[in-house]
Amino acid sequence: MSENGLIVARNIVKRYGRKRVLNGVEMCVPQGQVMALLGPNGAGKSTLLRIISGLTKPDRGEVLLGGVSTRKAGHEIRRYIGLVAHAPLLYDNLSAWDNLHFFARLYDIQQPAARVEAVLRAVDLWARRYDPVRTFSRGMTQRLAIGRAILHDPPVLLLDEPDTGLDPASAETLAQLIRVLGSGRRAILLTTHNLERALAWADSISLLADGKIIWSASTEGLTTERLQQAMIGLGINRFHPS
Amino acid sequence: MRSAVTHSYSVGWRSLDILQLVLGMLAVAAMTISMWAALYYAPPASNLAGDEQLAQRIFYIHMGCNIGALAGFLMSVIGSIVYLVKRDLDWDRVSQAAIEVGLICGMGTILTGMFWAKPTWNTYWTWDPRLTTSAITVLVYLAYLLFRNGIDNRHTRARFASIYALVAFLSVPLTFYSARLFRSIHPVIYGAENVDAQGGFSVGPTMTQALQINLLGFCILFSALLVLRWRQLRNEDAVAELREEIA
Amino acid sequence: MSKKALSVEPQPTPPVHIDLAAHPITMRLDGGLLAYLSKVAAVFAKDVRAELRGREIFTTMTAFGVLAVLIFGMAFDLRVPRSEMIAPGVLWGVVLFAGVLGLNRSFGAEVDRGTLPSLLLAPVDRSAIYFGKLFANLFFTLATAVVILVVMFFIFDLNLFQPYNLLAVLLGVTGYVGVGTLFAALTANNRARESMLPILLLPVMVPVFVAGVALTAGVLDGKAWEELNQWFGILAAFDAIFIVVAFLLFDLIWEDA
């Protein structure tokens, strides 16, 4: 397991009650790569993402972002993390512009207006920037949530099922964003239930089941059928592809 | 059951059992002596008569309960601080047990106070600082227990309860001071500042002894109940964990 | 650095050009007190703006406050000869109970809408969230207190807008939201959230209540500063102690989001 990754998880253990949701997760996402995390429902994918983002502390193990342990780093390390979670994390009373402007202030972005404009245009919401978020469709809310996550240009991007409930146009915008962002100095870790999208968007795939990463492979040359066979072979048949 | 649960407790099971046995026996002896001291050994108050004179004996038990409530609060603060530092759930159990026993003592203080007040002041309740503080303290304890009820995750519950216990503890001296600044008709036994205090009595040496015996006796009783409850909570948690493991 | 217009065409066929790198961002990374205060201000501004759009907090607090004053006015009208006798108690009692409604929403709304993690992800000490919300709650509760004072002016025929009383209300409400914001955070995820906050908060607020009532009564009785300053001392001590303690303990709440 290469230790040069931008996102490195070492022996992550997380218990809820007596149940070990994560039982020694080891993972590494190198810089410039997009990794898709697959696994059955309830496998702990969201929990792992929350631990990597620093929202939850693991019972054991540590997360290294760019070589820095999140346990030891203070709040400054959160500057380098962007998270798109299940919930949109947006204030639906406020407009898209107000939302992003607020987050820009939280991240100390200089000249926030210019950056907010750039991001809103990139996610194709510039026309609706003054409308309250509560009037947005699911696809628009998700695009804005992604906008919020990339606002401060974090090198580490964590996307928790970003494609759920998206219309094809929004999904296409998302795909392009991931293509653009997932290269160079960034690393992206995303979870999804859609095998086709995982293969199309990601450079590598990891399978999380029974609290551990049980399989990891590059997506180069990997077809959906081969992936499904591998998963069945590993005993993961509680899985609904696309 | 004990071998299946892998925990390293700061005070082991066996030590706790022995402690409970010893404290239990001591408490029985101590309370017997305390009751004898309060009801028989202590002389009747010379400046009082009739019902008031008899009711004055409640004073010893009243002060005993008072010290139990105070001990409960102090132990809960210690337990909370140690939990927040060490994250050992056993200390949170100490905190909870201390508050539960302290609650009973606190209610005892108020009840004995009321039974004493009726013949002495001809009223069950007044808003004097000590009574006010006792009542508020009991409410704070109750709130602590209700608060714990609403949180499922063990560590979150311990953490939040500890935070509340610390803040609540800090408020009690201020509550007392502010109520005292307001008014008082509570008899001040040691240090007569308030000329309006009624039903006071001068405390002679034998009475002081009886008081000290009661204070000590109630301290021992408090400790015995604390250890008992602590053990119970440990057992409850161990059973719950085993259940989760099987499920 | 010139601004480059970015174009995103909605139809999938032509290749779309998204070039965020054309507008790199600069962040101020030195942290420091100014950055901290700017985030406190950001949280405050966001809460106030959200309230102006949503109007949940102020309206409920004020409606409840006015109703309560009216009910107490009616209740005491028949038995109490002079309204000065009960006005202090009514004022502080109503402010305390009405304030709970606003405090509940300050973290309750974040939990209900699921926006709490977005605040926790910000690269700032969590106490900035505490102070931001403290100032927002202070703003809303003081506004409610003013409305209550106005209503009492008409219903009880008493001028409570005297400087010492206003100072007392300011200090008292500050201590109230200082503890209340902390407790609101503690109860936000609790199963019995709405009822839990007043049960936790009101016993701890007794010093403020007693001092507040004493001060308002003293002002109505025309007492001089020498007689009142002890009470101001209690309020100031309460505010200082509890805001410091809350600031220290606030971070501990968020270990498991």
Automatic annotation (TrEMBL), chain A:
Keywords tagged on the record: ATP-binding, Nucleotide-binding, Transport
Recorded GO MF terms: ATP binding; ATP hydrolysis activity
Domain spans labelled ABC transporter: 7-235
Gene3D superfamilies (alphabetical): P-loop containing nucleotide triphosphate hydrolases
SMART domains cross-referenced by the UniProt entry: AAA
Cited PANTHER family: ABC TRANSPORTER ATP-BINDING PROTEIN ALBC-RELATED
Protein name, per record: ABC transporter ATP-binding protein
TrEMBL record, chain B:
Compartmental location: Membrane
Chain ranges of the Cytochrome c assembly protein domain: 25-183
GO biological process terms held by the UniProt record: cytochrome complex assembly
Domain of life of the organism encoding this protein: Bacteria
Pfam short name (any one): Cytochrom_C_asm
InterPro entries assigned to the protein according to its UniProt record, in alphabetical order: Cyt_c_assembly, Cyt_c_biogenesis_CcmC, Cyt_c_biogenesis_CcsA/CcmC
TM annotation in the entry: 21-39, 59-85, 97-117, 129-147, 159-179, 210-228
Membrane topology: Multi-pass membrane protein
Keyword line: Cytochrome c-type biogenesis, Membrane, Transmembrane, Transmembrane helix
GO molecular function annotations of the record: heme binding; heme transmembrane transporter activity
Principal location class: membrane
A Gene Ontology cellular-component term: plasma membrane
Family: Belongs to the CcmC/CycZ/HelC family.
Name the UniProt record assigns to this protein: Heme exporter protein C
Lineage of producing organism: Bacteria, Bacillati, Chloroflexota, Caldilineae, Caldilineales
Automatic annotation (TrEMBL), chain C:
Keyword Transmembrane helix part of the UniProt annotation: yes
Pfam families: CcmB
One example of a Gene Ontology biological process annotation: cytochrome c biosynthetic process
Chain ranges passing through the membrane: 57-79, 85-103, 134-155, 167-187, 199-219, 231-254
Topological relation to the membrane, as annotated: Multi-pass membrane protein
Keyword match Cell inner membrane: yes
Keywords: Cell inner membrane, Cell membrane, Cytochrome c-type biogenesis, Membrane, Transmembrane, Transmembrane helix, Transport
Taxonomy, superkingdom: Bacteria
CC terms in the record's Gene Ontology section: plasma membrane
GO MF annotations in UniProt: heme transmembrane transporter activity
Subcellular localization(s) per the UniProt record: Cell inner membrane
PANTHER family for this protein: CYTOCHROME C BIOGENESIS B-RELATED, HEME EXPORTER PROTEIN B
Reported function: Required for the export of heme to the periplasm for the biogenesis of c-type cytochromes.
Family of the protein in this entry: Belongs to the CcmB/CycW/HelB family.
Name of this protein: Heme exporter protein B
Organism: Caldilinea aerophila
Lineage of the species this protein comes from: Bacteria, Bacillati, Chloroflexota, Caldilineae, Caldilineales
